[in-house]
Amino acid sequence: RIHPSVEAAVAALRADQQRLDTAAAARGLGVTAIGFNPVHSEYVVEPAFNAWERQHRRVTPEERTAHLHMVTYGPDLNLSWAGSTPDALVDAARKLTALSPYLVPLSFSSPFRDGGPWGGLSARTALRTGARPAALAFLADGVPQVSAEPSLTQRARLPPEVGRLEFKAFDSCPDAALYGELLSLLTGLVLDTTLPQRRTTPDTALHRHAARVGYGDPALRAGAEQALDAAAAALADRPADSARVESLRARFDRDESPARAMLARYDAGDTVAGLRRP
Q1: 4 φ, ψ to 5°?
Q2: What is the β-pairing status of strands 116-117 and 112-113?
Q3: Angle, vertex CA 74, rays to CA 69 and CA 75, nearest 5
Q4: Phi, psi of 17 (to 5 degrees)
Q5: pLDDT in tens, 14-25
Q6: Contact in structure between 114 and 183 (CB atoms under 8 Å)
Q7: Does the pTM exceed 0.90?
Q8: In a 3-state reduction of DSSP, which class is residue 19?
Q9: Which residues of 71-94 are buried (b: 16+ CB within 10 A; e: fewer)?
Q10: How remote is the C-alpha of 187 from its chain's centroid?
Q11: Exposure winner among 2, 69, 80, 219, fewest CB in 10 A?
Q12: What is the Cα–Cα distance from 105 to 87, expressed in whole angstroms?
Protein backbone atom coordinates (compact mmCIF):
# COMPACT_ATOMS: atom_id res chain seq x y z
CA ARG A 1 0.00 0.00 0.00
CA ILE A 2 0.95 3.63 -0.46
CA HIS A 3 1.78 5.36 2.84
CA PRO A 4 2.08 9.10 3.57
CA SER A 5 5.38 8.81 5.45
CA VAL A 6 8.35 6.59 6.17
CA GLU A 7 7.00 6.08 9.70
CA ALA A 8 3.69 4.76 8.37
CA ALA A 9 5.43 2.43 5.92
CA VAL A 10 7.68 1.02 8.65
CA ALA A 11 4.71 0.51 10.99
CA ALA A 12 2.83 -1.38 8.26
CA LEU A 13 5.85 -3.59 7.60
CA ARG A 14 6.18 -4.39 11.29
CA ALA A 15 2.50 -5.29 11.54
CA ASP A 16 2.75 -7.56 8.49
CA GLN A 17 5.88 -9.19 9.91
CA GLN A 18 4.13 -9.87 13.21
CA ARG A 19 1.21 -11.54 11.42
CA LEU A 20 3.61 -13.64 9.36
CA ASP A 21 5.66 -14.64 12.41
CA THR A 22 2.50 -15.65 14.29
CA ALA A 23 1.14 -17.71 11.40
CA ALA A 24 4.48 -19.43 10.86
CA ALA A 25 5.01 -20.20 14.56
CA ALA A 26 1.57 -21.85 14.76
CA ARG A 27 2.83 -24.35 12.19
CA GLY A 28 6.22 -24.94 13.77
CA LEU A 29 8.02 -22.70 11.30
CA GLY A 30 10.25 -19.65 11.59
CA VAL A 31 10.81 -16.70 9.27
CA THR A 32 14.11 -15.40 7.95
CA ALA A 33 15.08 -12.64 5.52
CA ILE A 34 17.61 -13.48 2.82
CA GLY A 35 18.51 -11.87 -0.50
CA PHE A 36 19.22 -14.99 -2.54
CA ASN A 37 17.91 -18.54 -2.59
CA PRO A 38 20.42 -20.36 -0.37
CA VAL A 39 19.98 -23.70 -2.14
CA HIS A 40 19.02 -23.10 -5.78
CA SER A 41 20.84 -20.57 -7.99
CA GLU A 42 18.57 -21.09 -10.97
CA TYR A 43 14.80 -21.20 -11.34
CA VAL A 44 13.66 -23.88 -13.77
CA VAL A 45 10.23 -23.31 -15.30
CA GLU A 46 8.08 -26.45 -15.36
CA PRO A 47 6.47 -27.02 -17.77
CA ALA A 48 8.71 -25.14 -20.22
CA PHE A 49 7.39 -21.94 -21.81
CA ASN A 50 5.26 -22.32 -24.91
CA ALA A 51 5.92 -20.33 -28.11
CA TRP A 52 3.73 -17.38 -27.08
CA GLU A 53 5.38 -17.13 -23.67
CA ARG A 54 8.86 -17.27 -25.18
CA GLN A 55 7.99 -14.45 -27.57
CA HIS A 56 6.41 -12.35 -24.81
CA ARG A 57 9.52 -12.65 -22.64
CA ARG A 58 11.65 -11.05 -25.36
CA VAL A 59 9.63 -7.81 -25.53
CA THR A 60 11.42 -5.71 -22.87
CA PRO A 61 14.76 -5.87 -21.02
CA GLU A 62 12.91 -6.69 -17.82
CA GLU A 63 10.95 -9.54 -19.40
CA ARG A 64 14.19 -11.01 -20.75
CA THR A 65 15.61 -11.19 -17.23
CA ALA A 66 12.39 -11.89 -15.31
CA HIS A 67 13.62 -15.35 -14.26
CA LEU A 68 16.22 -13.72 -11.98
CA HIS A 69 13.68 -12.46 -9.47
CA MET A 70 12.67 -16.04 -8.70
CA VAL A 71 15.98 -16.61 -6.86
CA THR A 72 16.94 -13.01 -5.94
CA TYR A 73 14.93 -11.33 -3.20
CA GLY A 74 14.81 -7.67 -2.27
CA PRO A 75 12.51 -4.70 -1.79
CA ASP A 76 11.27 -2.15 -4.27
CA LEU A 77 11.62 1.01 -2.18
CA ASN A 78 9.39 3.71 -3.63
CA LEU A 79 9.31 7.47 -3.23
CA SER A 80 6.60 9.72 -4.66
CA TRP A 81 7.98 13.04 -5.91
CA ALA A 82 4.90 15.20 -6.33
CA GLY A 83 5.25 18.10 -8.74
CA SER A 84 8.56 16.94 -10.21
CA THR A 85 9.33 17.39 -13.90
CA PRO A 86 10.17 14.45 -16.17
CA ASP A 87 13.74 15.74 -16.47
CA ALA A 88 14.13 15.92 -12.70
CA LEU A 89 12.76 12.39 -12.28
CA VAL A 90 15.11 10.98 -14.90
CA ASP A 91 18.05 12.81 -13.34
CA ALA A 92 17.20 11.42 -9.90
CA ALA A 93 16.98 7.88 -11.29
CA ARG A 94 20.35 8.34 -12.99
CA LYS A 95 21.87 9.60 -9.73
CA LEU A 96 20.55 6.64 -7.73
CA THR A 97 21.75 4.24 -10.44
CA ALA A 98 25.27 5.72 -10.26
CA LEU A 99 25.35 5.62 -6.44
CA SER A 100 23.86 2.13 -6.19
CA PRO A 101 27.12 0.14 -5.76
CA TYR A 102 28.11 2.42 -2.87
CA LEU A 103 24.72 2.07 -1.16
CA VAL A 104 23.79 -1.59 -1.52
CA PRO A 105 26.36 -3.03 0.95
CA LEU A 106 24.28 -1.46 3.73
CA SER A 107 21.61 -4.09 3.01
CA PHE A 108 23.63 -7.16 1.99
CA SER A 109 21.88 -10.34 3.19
CA SER A 110 22.81 -13.08 0.73
CA PRO A 111 26.11 -14.69 1.77
CA PHE A 112 24.88 -18.19 0.87
CA ARG A 113 24.47 -19.93 -2.46
CA ASP A 114 24.09 -23.56 -3.52
CA GLY A 115 24.00 -24.79 0.06
CA GLY A 116 26.77 -22.80 1.72
CA PRO A 117 28.80 -19.58 1.83
CA TRP A 118 29.77 -18.50 -1.67
CA GLY A 119 32.71 -16.25 -0.74
CA GLY A 120 30.98 -12.88 -0.77
CA LEU A 121 28.24 -10.91 0.95
CA SER A 122 25.54 -10.59 -1.73
CA ALA A 123 24.95 -13.34 -4.27
CA ARG A 124 21.87 -11.34 -5.26
CA THR A 125 23.87 -8.30 -6.29
CA ALA A 126 26.50 -10.42 -8.03
CA LEU A 127 23.90 -12.07 -10.25
CA ARG A 128 21.20 -9.45 -10.62
CA THR A 129 22.39 -5.86 -10.72
CA GLY A 130 23.38 -4.84 -14.20
CA ALA A 131 21.00 -7.31 -15.78
CA ARG A 132 18.14 -5.70 -13.85
CA PRO A 133 17.63 -1.99 -13.10
CA ALA A 134 18.96 -0.30 -9.98
CA ALA A 135 16.41 2.51 -10.17
CA LEU A 136 13.34 3.37 -12.24
CA ALA A 137 11.48 6.63 -12.89
CA PHE A 138 7.79 6.43 -13.83
CA LEU A 139 6.81 9.00 -16.46
CA ALA A 140 3.45 10.16 -17.76
CA ASP A 141 1.98 8.67 -20.89
CA GLY A 142 3.32 10.60 -23.89
CA VAL A 143 6.58 11.63 -22.23
CA PRO A 144 9.57 10.18 -24.12
CA GLN A 145 11.15 7.19 -22.42
CA VAL A 146 14.91 6.77 -22.00
CA SER A 147 16.17 3.98 -24.24
CA ALA A 148 18.36 1.75 -22.05
CA GLU A 149 18.94 -1.90 -21.14
CA PRO A 150 18.13 -2.47 -18.37
CA SER A 151 15.46 0.21 -18.30
CA LEU A 152 15.81 3.53 -16.49
CA THR A 153 12.24 4.70 -17.08
CA GLN A 154 8.80 3.16 -17.42
CA ARG A 155 5.43 4.52 -18.45
CA ALA A 156 3.15 5.09 -15.47
CA ARG A 157 0.23 2.68 -15.59
CA LEU A 158 -2.08 5.07 -13.71
CA PRO A 159 -1.97 8.88 -13.31
CA PRO A 160 -1.14 8.67 -9.56
CA GLU A 161 1.97 6.66 -10.45
CA VAL A 162 3.53 9.59 -12.32
CA GLY A 163 6.44 10.88 -10.26
CA ARG A 164 7.30 7.54 -8.66
CA LEU A 165 10.95 6.69 -8.11
CA GLU A 166 11.70 3.06 -7.39
CA PHE A 167 15.02 1.82 -6.04
CA LYS A 168 15.40 -1.90 -6.71
CA ALA A 169 18.97 -2.88 -5.82
CA PHE A 170 18.88 -3.47 -2.04
CA ASP A 171 18.85 -6.98 -0.59
CA SER A 172 16.04 -8.14 1.68
CA CYS A 173 16.40 -6.75 5.20
CA PRO A 174 15.66 -8.58 8.46
CA ASP A 175 13.99 -5.65 10.22
CA ALA A 176 11.68 -2.85 9.22
CA ALA A 177 13.85 -0.22 10.91
CA LEU A 178 16.60 -0.74 8.32
CA TYR A 179 14.07 -0.29 5.53
CA GLY A 180 13.03 3.00 7.10
CA GLU A 181 16.64 4.17 7.30
CA LEU A 182 17.23 3.26 3.66
CA LEU A 183 14.08 5.11 2.61
CA SER A 184 15.30 8.22 4.40
CA LEU A 185 18.72 7.86 2.76
CA LEU A 186 17.09 7.71 -0.68
CA THR A 187 14.95 10.74 0.21
CA GLY A 188 18.04 12.73 1.10
CA LEU A 189 19.85 11.69 -2.08
CA VAL A 190 16.90 12.77 -4.23
CA LEU A 191 16.77 16.14 -2.45
CA ASP A 192 20.56 16.61 -2.65
CA THR A 193 21.84 19.07 -5.25
CA THR A 194 25.60 18.54 -4.82
CA LEU A 195 26.53 15.02 -5.92
CA PRO A 196 27.65 14.82 -9.57
CA GLN A 197 27.44 11.07 -10.17
CA ARG A 198 25.06 9.96 -12.93
CA ARG A 199 24.60 6.73 -14.90
CA THR A 200 21.85 5.52 -17.22
CA THR A 201 22.59 1.83 -16.56
CA PRO A 202 24.15 0.17 -13.49
CA ASP A 203 27.91 -0.38 -13.33
CA THR A 204 27.86 -4.18 -13.45
CA ALA A 205 31.56 -4.70 -12.66
CA LEU A 206 31.50 -2.37 -9.66
CA HIS A 207 28.33 -4.01 -8.30
CA ARG A 208 29.93 -7.45 -8.60
CA HIS A 209 33.03 -6.19 -6.82
CA ALA A 210 30.89 -4.67 -4.06
CA ALA A 211 28.96 -7.95 -3.76
CA ARG A 212 32.17 -9.72 -2.80
CA VAL A 213 34.02 -7.24 -0.59
CA GLY A 214 31.41 -4.74 0.61
CA TYR A 215 33.02 -1.84 2.42
CA GLY A 216 36.31 -3.71 2.62
CA ASP A 217 37.22 -1.66 -0.45
CA PRO A 218 38.25 1.88 0.65
CA ALA A 219 36.85 3.41 -2.56
CA LEU A 220 33.41 1.88 -1.95
CA ARG A 221 33.55 3.03 1.65
CA ALA A 222 34.47 6.56 0.63
CA GLY A 223 31.62 6.65 -1.90
CA ALA A 224 29.13 5.54 0.73
CA GLU A 225 30.41 8.12 3.19
CA GLN A 226 30.02 10.85 0.58
CA ALA A 227 26.44 9.75 -0.08
CA LEU A 228 25.59 9.66 3.63
CA ASP A 229 27.05 13.13 4.13
CA ALA A 230 25.10 14.55 1.18
CA ALA A 231 21.85 12.95 2.32
CA ALA A 232 22.31 14.22 5.88
CA ALA A 233 22.90 17.76 4.64
CA ALA A 234 19.83 17.66 2.40
CA LEU A 235 17.68 16.42 5.31
CA ALA A 236 18.83 19.03 7.84
CA ASP A 237 15.30 20.45 8.17
CA ARG A 238 13.63 17.01 8.42
CA PRO A 239 14.39 15.72 11.97
CA ALA A 240 12.86 12.25 11.63
CA ASP A 241 14.65 11.50 8.36
CA SER A 242 17.87 12.94 9.77
CA ALA A 243 17.67 10.63 12.79
CA ARG A 244 17.20 7.59 10.58
CA VAL A 245 20.17 8.51 8.39
CA GLU A 246 22.30 8.97 11.51
CA SER A 247 21.24 5.50 12.68
CA LEU A 248 22.22 4.15 9.27
CA ARG A 249 25.58 5.93 9.53
CA ALA A 250 26.18 4.17 12.86
CA ARG A 251 25.59 0.81 11.15
CA PHE A 252 28.00 1.91 8.42
CA ASP A 253 30.64 2.95 10.96
CA ARG A 254 30.40 -0.50 12.54
CA ASP A 255 30.61 -2.13 9.07
CA GLU A 256 27.37 -3.85 10.01
CA SER A 257 25.22 -5.74 7.52
CA PRO A 258 22.75 -8.63 7.75
CA ALA A 259 25.15 -10.78 5.71
CA ARG A 260 27.98 -10.39 8.19
CA ALA A 261 25.64 -11.29 11.06
CA MET A 262 24.44 -14.38 9.14
CA LEU A 263 28.00 -15.56 8.47
CA ALA A 264 28.94 -15.08 12.14
CA ARG A 265 25.99 -17.20 13.24
CA TYR A 266 26.80 -19.84 10.61
CA ASP A 267 30.45 -19.98 11.72
CA ALA A 268 29.26 -20.38 15.32
CA GLY A 269 27.32 -23.51 14.33
CA ASP A 270 23.81 -22.03 14.23
CA THR A 271 21.30 -22.89 11.54
CA VAL A 272 20.90 -19.89 9.23
CA ALA A 273 18.33 -19.81 6.41
CA GLY A 274 18.03 -23.57 6.70
CA LEU A 275 21.78 -24.14 6.39
CA ARG A 276 24.16 -25.46 9.03
CA ARG A 277 27.93 -25.59 8.89
CA PRO A 278 29.14 -29.16 8.20
Answers
A1: -80, -10
A2: antiparallel
A3: 115
A4: -60, -40
A5: 999 999 999 999
A6: no
A7: yes
A8: helix
A9: bbbbbebbbebeebebeebbebbb
A10: 14
A11: 2
A12: 29
